Amino acid sequence: MDRMVQIEHLSWTRAVIASLLLAPLAGASATPPVPSNHALNQRGLWPDTAVLDGFRLFETKLLLKLGLPNLKTALNHLTAQADDWLTKGPYTVTSKTIVPPGGDKHDYASQAPYWWPNPDTADGCPYLQRDGIRNPEVDNYTDHGDRGDMFQSSYILSLAWYYTGKKEYATHAAGILRTWFLTPETRMNPNLNHAQIIPCKNTGRAIGIIDFSQQYTAVLDAAAILASGAPGWTKTDQSSFQQWNVEFLDWLANSPFGIEESAAANNHGTFASMQKAGIAVFVGNKTVAKQEAVGMKARIDAYISPNGSQPLELIRTRSWHYSTFDLVAYTRIADIGKKVGVDLWKYKGPQGQSIQGAVDFIVAGATGGAAAWVYPELEFYGYAASDIVHAAADAGNLKALKAVSKLQTPPGGDLWALRPAVEQLDAISN
């Protein structure tokens, strides 16, 4: 379906929903103002998500019932992935064979991906950095791969349950989240003290927070979706998971690692702020969420150039990957900001710096491929920009809207219509 036609369908559906919900509240001659999505959702009709627009999920669910072809195609892609995840997991940090430096298997642990043994020494120390080139030795810490599978499986399964009502999707997603975060024997401690260890050098780094911040907010949305009535996920589960996140947010905000990561100038700082904002919305701390969203304006001013480039990402050996990667964080916090009254999509810095300008900068690569991207890139994947361009188009960017039809389809199909929040589609960490 043409994008403009789809937008018209969504607008029509939203108007119908609003009128139906408002009808019992209005007098015969009253014309009540259109309330916010949050006010409309006092009856719990859609998921109270942290990043995704829960109302939009509800609209899409209704449109699926009307039989829109593009949505049926996306649903087939989604359920194919969900069916595959049904045979995998659950996952836990306690299944690893390497005990973390702190001695507690409940602590998450991973090894820095771009650091390699020194070929000139017997013990390989000190390790040497090779930017953008992943050392397969890092797979010895199984938490990292299991974490990625836990993130993706819980998200896909929860969405599949929401759109199909198939009980098996929900119960498996619930089991995956419960095993990783809640069950006493298998739960992860709410910290990242031992993430991205460099052998011979340290027992963890602030930079390791990226292991979670690059996708963890999707897990929050998975839990929110399950909390909207899914079998197998109880109110106690949701309350316990929220408490886990209260403790995790405290660690992210106040630990030395958390403070250091939040101050990072490149994508690490963007993701750290986005993650804190998303968790804050999830646990009901809108003050912190708003602080993080407002603070993002200074980051846009400092790290996005007036021409839309991101200089600290362009100097990497994977400049395309990291330029799109950083935009995952910017666009997600822009969606979080809408929930707390901060419009980052329309924000412009003193020299015109903006998220939309950064999207404009990558459109040529998104539609023209590697030949249109003149910066260093070890392995170019055009589809990395697919969600980003979709998000910008939905936020009113006409250049992005024109580019949508030219995007490279991500592996597994384009799921944007069913989960309209930007994801990292060219993961190089696994």
From TrEMBL:
Key words, A-Z: Lyase, Signal
All residue ranges annotated as the Alginate lyase domain in the record: 92-370
UniProt GO MF annotations: lyase activity
InterPro entries reported in the protein's UniProt record:
Alginate_lyase_dom, Chondroitin_lyas
Task: One GO cellular component term, please give it.
Answer: periplasmic space
Coiled coil region boundaries: none
Does this UniProt record's set of keywords contain Lyase?
Answer: yes
The protein's name in its UniProt record? Alginate lyase domain-containing protein
Signal peptide coordinates? 1-30
This chain's source organism reads Pseudogymnoascus verrucosus
